[in-house]
Each structure stands twice: as structure tokens, then as C-alpha cells.
Amino acid sequence: MQEFYLERIQELAPCELIETREARGIEERFEERIKEVEAKDLEKHFKDDYIICLFDEGKEMSSLDFARFLEKLLLTSQRPITFVIGGFLGLKDRILKSADTVLSLSKMTFSHELCRVILLEQIYRSLAHIRGKQYPK
Fold this sequence. Notes:
Helices cover 46% and strands 14% of the residues. The protein is of the alpha/beta class. Helix 1 runs parallel beside helix 5 (112-130) and helix 3 crosses helix 5.
């Protein structure tokens, strides 16, 4: 499903999916250490990007609100847009604090793999709306 949406997004706008290194071999009880390893790997990819972190306590938007937000961002910002989804333990606080926007897909908790598919679908839906294309329902 992820590839399905990624291909459709790439027909409308440049898009790259980067998966960072997981903190393998560290026991889950060392949560902060795991988050630190993941944060350092994420930060290597940030340049002067407009960072949007997904976090359950972030701002919620309808699909139409998200499309309007994305359209405004595409029109007004010269910076590349980077969406960040944390691992199973979430994101390090400094990553969240450095974000330009913190967004929530829902008050519910989803796996990071499912969040990725939901986010890609919403990005595709938004870009189709922005470009005046019919979104297949």
C-alpha cells in the first residue's frame, strides 16, 4: 500500500521516502537511548527543511484543512517539506521542539508503519486536490 501512494505522489510532486536506522540490539527499557540513536540518524537528513513531525498530541486537521495547509506551504515556502514519523517509542523531545509544525493523524495510537501509509494517502489526496485532479473514492 505504501508503494501505491508513493508512486501516485511522485506523479504529482517530487517525493522521497527515507527510513532511518533503527536502534537494534538495545533493550526497550533504555527508551531514551533508543530515541537518541534514532534522532541522530534523523538529524543527518535535515537541512533547511520545513519539518512536520507526527505526534499524537499535535494539531489535528481534516483532509481538506491539510490540503489547504500543504498548498499554502508549497506556495509560500522555498524550503523542502520533510515529514517525520518516529519509531515505536516516538520521537526525541528535541526533534519535536525543532519542528515547524507538529501534526496528529488521530488521538488514537497507530504503528509507525501504518502512520506512514495514512500520511502518504493524505499527501496524495491533498496534492490531487491542489492540482485539480479527481481523487478516486
